Amino acid sequence: MDLVTIIEEKITKALSPATLDVINESHLHASHASSPNTGVSHFRLTIISDKFTDLNLLARQRMVHDILKDELSGSIHALSLTTKSPNEVS
User: Fold this and answer.
1) What contacts 59, CB < 8 A, 6 or more positions away?
2) What is d(CA 53, CA 59) in angstroms, rounded to the nearest whole number?
3) How confident is the prediction along the chain (90 residues), in pLDDT tens digits per residue?
């Protein structure tokens, strides 16, 4: 199973998002220091979920990091997050 699919499945299972965008940005970072150059190491996620309601930004990001802890300790080198509840989307 590829890493994008793993991310999508884990986030969907844990957060039941109204919106989930997983963008592989690894190609933008291929030559920077400490990049593993695997082509699947840098991701940008946009997640809109009811589970973020009444949580501050740090708590939301910790929640996502906990969901993806195995991938963050191995395959994922960088993770950029946009986390919102549905009532924050205009």
Assistant:
1) none
2) 11
3) 788 999 999 999 999 999 999 998 765 545 554 554 555 677 899 999 999 999 999 999 999 999 999 998 888 878 999 999 999 997
